[in-house]
């Protein structure tokens, strides 16, 4: 992969006239140093919910990869050695070469189709803010666009089962709580706390009935989840089952009437899965193979395709279900 030389992700984008320091002052934060002095209790008490307190940097050892299906072909997105977003496509027989989307270094990525059916890449910028780029009708990518101020450690989105559902982004704030923002036309509603509970990393999904679920790695390194309630608000956090994990992913496309499923990189570096179909009893190893980054998508016919960043910084995929397949390397290319 070639190295992209350009502006650092998080600087002012085209058409945005306000600077980061100006946004900070609008929020009552005079400087980044002042932000670091805030405490988690200040945010959780309701003060300045749009900018959770800074308590540290995201896990730099965690790789980030995302996958979806376009016109029957798998498309994988990953962060290249240059920090930019790159993509490759599998047409059923071979992988394409890696190509960049839009220049800009990021820490973590997640995918979502919006109400118009357009593909968006949401990313955690080098400034720990949420940004997104959109795939345009001509196959090019839009410039990166800032959503709204809010320091994040982890980011996730969900693919809606409703055609007109607005985009929703979930983050782990710097206070280790889960917050969400929802698109409102060309702007974004304020950050909203889901349910109190400190977590490290999240993966959100919408099931076939339209209910949202957020899975998270707790501070105990176990997998927990919360559910959006039909009456509004969120349920309390519930443990799935005991099992120490390093990273989690939920399939980005729901299966009609299907159970909820979680994939995780265990303490041994292997990929394991659990399902709500048996009451969250029993972690199952998928295939032998150690990795660092993880993503999954339901491919249909009872098969889930999992993408993983291997210990050699290459991307591998496997099929889980009937039939299953071993880990296979995609197109060569060093990713983070």
Average pLDDT rating: 81
Biggest beta-sheet profile: 5 strands, antiparallel
| Strand composition percent | 35-45%
- DSSP helical segment count: 3
Helix content: under 10%
Task: Give the low-pLDDT segments.
Answer: 1-61
Q: Report how far the terminal alpha carbons are from each other.
A: 12 Å
How is the topology of this model organized?
Elements: H1 20-26, H2 32-36, H3 40-44, E1 65-70, E2 73-79, E3 85-90, E4 99-100, E5 106-113, E6 119-125, E7 130-134, E8 145-146, E9 152-157, E10 168-173, E11 178-184, E12 187-188, E13 192-193, E14 199-206, E15 212-218, E16 223-227, E17 238-239, E18 245-249, E19 261-266, E20 271-275, E21 284-285, E22 291-300, E23 303-310, E24 315-321, E25 328-329
Antiparallel strand pairs: 1-2, 2-3, 3-4, 5-6, 6-7, 7-8, 9-10, 10-11, 11-12, 11-13, 14-15, 15-16, 16-17, 18-19, 19-20, 20-21, 22-23, 23-24, 24-25
């Amino acid at each position: 992969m070639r190295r992209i030389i350009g502006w650092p992700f998080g600087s002012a984008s085209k058409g945005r006239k306000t600077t980061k320091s100006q946004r900070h002052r609008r929020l009552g934060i005079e400087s980044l140093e002042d932000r670091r002095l805030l405490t988690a209790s200040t945010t959780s008490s309701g003060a300045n919910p749009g900018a959770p307190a800074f308590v540290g940097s995201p896990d730099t050892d965690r790789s980030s990869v995302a996958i979806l299906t376009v016109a029957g072909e798998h498309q994988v997105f990953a962060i290249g050695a240059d920090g930019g977003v790159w993509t490759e496509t599998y047409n059923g027989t071979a992988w394409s070469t890696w190509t960049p989307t839009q220049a800009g270094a990021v820490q973590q990525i997640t995918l979502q189709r919006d109400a118009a059916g357009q593909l968006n890449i949401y990313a955690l910028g080098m400034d720990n803010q949420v940004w997104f780029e959109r795939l345009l009708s001509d196959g090019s990518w839009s410039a990166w666009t800032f959503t709204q101020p809010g320091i994040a450690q982890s980011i996730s989105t969900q693919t809606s089962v409703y055609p007109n559902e607005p985009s929703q982004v979930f983050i782990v704030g710097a206070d280790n709580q889960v917050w969400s923002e929802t698109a409102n036309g060309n702007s974004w509603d304020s950050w909203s706390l889901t349910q109190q509970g400190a977590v490290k990393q999240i993966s959100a999904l919408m099931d076939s009935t339209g209910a949202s679920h957020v899975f998270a790695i707790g501070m105990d390194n176990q997998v927990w989840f919360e559910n959006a309630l039909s009456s509004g608000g969120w349920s309390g956090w519930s443990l799935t089952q005991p099992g120490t994990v390093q990273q989690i992913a939920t399939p980005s496309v729901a299966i009609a009437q299907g159970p909820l499923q979680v994939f995780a990189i265990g303490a041994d570096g292997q990929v394991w899965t659990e399902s709500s179909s048996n009451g969250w009893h029993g972690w199952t190893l998928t295939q032998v193979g150690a990795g660092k980054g993880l993503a999954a998508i339901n491919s249909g016919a009872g098969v889930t395709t999992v993408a993983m960043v291997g210990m050699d910084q290459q991307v591998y995929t496997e099929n889980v279900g009937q039939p299953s397949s071993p880990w296979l390397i995609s197109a060569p290319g060093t990713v983070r």
